[in-house]
Amino acid sequence: MDKTYQPQAIESRLYQQWEENGYFAPAGSAATRGEDSAYCIMIPPPNVTGSLHMGHGFQETIMDTLIRYHRMQGYNTLWQPGTDHAGIATQMVVERQLEAASTSRKELGRDKFIEKVWEWKEQSGGTITRQLRRMGASPDWSRERFTMDDGLSNAVQEVFVRLYEEALIYRGTRLVNWDPKLHTAVSDLEVEQEEENGSLWHYKYPLADGSGHLTVATTRPETMLGDMAVAVHPDDERYKSFIGKDIALPLTERTIPVIADDYVDMEFGTGCVKITPAHDFNDYEMGQRHNLPLMNIFTEDATLNDNAPQQYRGMDRFAARKQIVKDLEALDLLEKVEPHKLKVPRGDRTKEVIEPFLTEQWYVDAKTLAKPAIAAVENGDINFVPKQWENTYFAWMRDIQDWCISRQLWWGHRIPAWYDSENTIYVGRSEAEVREKNNLGADIELRQDEDVLDTWFSSALWTFSTLGWPDDTPEQKIFHPSSVLVTGFDIIFFWVARMIMMTLHFKQEVPFHTVYVHGLVRDSHGQKMSKSKGNVLDPIDLIDGIELDPLIEKRTSGMMQPQQKEKITKQTKKEFPDGINAYGTDALRFTYLSLASTGRDIKFDVGRIEGFRNFCNKIWNAARYVLMNSEEFDLSGDNYELSLADRWIISRLQETETAVADAVAQYRFDLASQAIYEFFWNEYCDWYLELSKPVLWAEDASPELQLGTRRTLVRVLEAALRLLHPMMPFITEEIWQRIKGLAGAEGETIMLQAFPCADNSKVDAEAIDAIEWLKRIIIGVRNIRGEMDISPKKHLAVFFKNGSPEDQSRLDDNEPFLKKLANIESITWLNEGDEAPMSATALAGEMEVLVPMAGLIDTEAEKARINKEIDKQGKEVKRLSGKLGNEKFVSNAPTDVVEKEKAKLAEAESALQKLQEQLDKLSAL
RNA sequence: GGGUGGUUAGCUCAGCUGGGAGAGCGACGGCCUUACAAGCCGUAGGUCACAGGUUCGAUCCCUGUACCACCCACCA
User: Measured between alpha carbons, how far is residue A444 from residues A193, A425, A429, A435, A681 in Å?
Assistant: First the structure.
């Protein structure tokens, strides 16, 4: 074995073996395993043409850990992989490519364009799944699905048709969020409201009869061309007399009424609001209440249409704004402009300003579907972890709006609706079915709806469409509902809520029992990672490492402003002067898990991953040690004896196994990883391996004891590897393969071994006490050595004073260990009355451990050290005696607490007394 | 405007339904001790954001305040 762990030497080889051997597939049918033993996770399908980012890495690690854990526990385990066609995102990428090639989607035409998208999908579609493999993910790749493949498209169509037939899908004309760049409607969720700096213009609107004017305040002057009224509050004394009068709308030939509506806030602006029902959601509502006509003034590109006065037609909305501001000012109608912060709606993909736009679209009746979906969480059929996300879910679901599902895109599931020349709607699974069902002869021309469905429509069916629905498949019986959904809070509404609605409706069961909601991965300063900030880390770079120059190149490529490029370059040079080391997959996974405490975002600090890379190295070297000391021996016999240390480490292993099981049951991967880390490093390596040396290296040790130690070394390591495998699959497999024979394990892979389960009968309290005793003494001597600057090489002669018979017997049992671990030459037991040399002292309970000072220790230094300890113990005594002197504490606190405090006090008092005596002696010199 | 989460060592975070705080990294001192210098040994760091309250006792429970982050919402 290499002296240092080299992840790149083993990872891809092992992964290939796992995949080729079919270890990722579920093991056994429902008949052989029983349905109860199934465990299933559906992957949140990443964009098919995307690539892995830190959020994926985090999420995949959690899922894979859960999957490997349950697989090892013997569940019939399915991790269902797949990818999403990501309508808008993918179409945008391909359109950009076309643009670069000086053509466009329109030029190409629908069929050719879709062909191009499929080409792009074939070309780049493997990236993310390849990267998932690098993460060590173990989904059943043979079952991989794509939202646009035949089976899933079939499910989408079926769901659409059935919902339409149940009147839960309908077509309606209303204001939608329109993206003028993409030329499509988007749902409310796809609109981000960002606060931006704008202006609030105050304009005079003259009355038609010339008797005066009202002043309206607006952030969007250009929409005034579509104004249909001016509204005031009915109780507003200032404007009561204006209600019912007419306004001569400037720049147009139209007159509009002054209306009263209590939506108007008297305090804001001037208290007069211009009402543009076709271009504002609130105005639309008010228009409905007051029967105002709608006048749309925009085209699909958000340029002004023919409803606008001649001089504005064809102008872009922002150019029109400038022009209208100018024109109104020229008419002397501008009263004032003030700076104003406002929320600007932007498309989450295009960042384009979204325009409320009157169109005909398809909608899902979400209110009806939401009812059972709310109930399922209320009654505990679905549990969120952490629980507070349920409130977020409820709040949204109880006020849910109908879901606009049609998109004016080409890439996606085409809506299965046909129209005749009269625009009658026919919905069906195919044109043929539509014709047959509606008795439409071949002479009647039908055209299919041009639109496609929102990407999330197909994602909403994911848990059952991937298992073969609408066909009745055995997979659905075994694996549905799935066990847990692992996802980010940002898609609770987009995806989780809609999955719950759709699945309950079509399967009459929940899609999953638990929703584990994890936080966002941020950079080490808590900033969101984004290309524009230049702070993005790529999980693959953390695995393979990357030099500084390519890292800078990666972070700055495609940057428009050279200024920004420079800033990012500087920042990157500062943070990663030598680039990023190759840490390997296991270190990365362990880092994610150790940061995964529930309910908060995680800051990813490269310092952390380095620490866990070191942990990998520690494991590697511990294994080297174990192999060196056991490889050439026959460990198979039964003629062995376990030492105290053996029994101790076996006890601690059981306790660690319990801690890990408890933590995983609560999705506390941070606690689980910490428990293993501590066990392996601080106990197995720091103490047990050291304790094994005196046994293995002693000429005169009994063969039984040596065999016992070798067995324990190997077997505890083997169990620890299994315990660790779901978190660190690669290193554990590699080492396991080398030691399985020695440990008496059989099987081809650690992946399919039993996960360790604590056996409390192996917890040996006596051994634990004995090793604690041992550790106290060794640490005491080391402390003196360190504090008094005694060379580690110096063999010490020490004395034990005031020891009990139990101390005596422990000394007899453990002398070689003490000598080896504290580098002690001799231990002299002092009976009462024996003369003790002038010494530095460490306490082990009542017993004093003396390190003679002659020639080694300076009196003043030792006095200072003792004083420090006296100070500490003195404070403790004061605190405890104060507490115990409090009548109320003694009478009110539970007796076991009082007893515990009393014992602590006695111990502190005894220590204090001994230290004081020692100090007196030193002072007398 | 409503809601959620956070505030603990220099940094990143734990702290198990209340018995006066822990880890990793970093810092400091000493070690090339035959598994590991990506290591070993030792040490020093905290009025647990602030103010009240409940309690014999509060980092933990309650109320309020401040700051940070995020989500939702129709203020032109």
Answer: 46, 13, 18, 9, 78
Q: What is the pLDDT of residues A271-282, one digit of tens each?
A: 899 999 999 999
* Å between CA of A867 and C1' of B45: 19
Grouping H, G, I as helix, E, B as strand and the rest as coil, residue A675 is helix
Q: How far apart are CA A354 and CA A811, in angstroms?
A: 80
Question: Could you tell me if A84 and A45 are in contact, meaning their C-beta atoms sit under 8 angstroms apart?
Answer: yes
DSSP state of A741: T
| Residue A489: nearest nucleotide (C-alpha to C1') | B71
Strand B reaches within 7 A of the A792 CB: yes
Distances (CA, A) of A312 to A71, A251, A319, A812: 67, 10, 9, 102
Measured CA to C1', what is the nucleotide nearest A613? Answer: B38
Per-residue pLDDT tens over the stretch A231-264:
999 888 888 898 899 999 988 889 999 999 988 8
Q: Which of residues 685-744 of A touch strand B (CB under 7 A)?
A: 685-686, 689-690, 693
What percent helix, strand, coil does chain A show, rounded to 5?
Answer: 50, 20, 35
Q: How confident is the model over A24-44, as pLDDT tens digits?
A: 999 855 445 455 689 999 999
Residue A552, φ and ψ in degrees, nearest 5: -65, -45
Q: Which nucleotide is nearest to A345 (CA to C1')?
A: B74
Find, among A751, A593, A587, A729, the residue nearest to A667 by Cα: A593
The residues that bridge with A361 in the sheet, in sequence order, are A172
Write the ipTM. 0.95
Query: Can you tell me the distance from the alpha carbon of A769 to that of A764, in angstroms, rounded to the nearest whole number?
Result: 9
Structural contact between residues A205 and A214, judged by C-beta atoms closer than 8 angstroms: yes
Distance (Å, whole) CA A37 – CA A29: 10
Check if residue A602 sits with its Cβ under 7 angstroms from strand B: yes
